[in-house]
Amino acid sequence: MERTISLPDDLLAQVEGTASRQGKNVDQWLEGVVRAELEDRRWRELLEYGRQKGRESDYRESDVPDVVREWRRENPGR
Q: Is the C-alpha dihedral spanning 27, 75, 47, 45 positive or negative?
């Protein structure tokens, strides 16, 4: 589903310039930026989950794979 978004003129000009320099149109560039941000956010959430679990318990580094599997079970599709 496509949506229309609005940006302040100064920000839009920066986006257009950056997209053009990368050989992309605004939609392509914004899609890439949004996808990268969402991916980065998922990693930050996973890291914070690990830190939280570590603070709540006596986990050791060797326990990390199990913690990651547990997080993935609790957060399918993330």
A: positive
| Cα separation, 22 vs 17, whole angstroms | 9
Which token pair is 67?
């913690």
| Residues ≥6 apart with Cβ < 8 Å to 29 | 15, 18, 19, 22
CB 57 within 8 A of CB 66: no
Q: What is the rounded distance in angstroms from the CA atom of residue 31 to the CA atom of residue 36? A: 9
* DSSP single-letter state for residue 75: S
73, 56 contact by CB (below 8 A): no
CA distance 56 to 13: 47
What is the mean pLDDT of each successive set of 10 residues along the chain, which is 78 residues long?
92 98 97 97 93 84 89 89
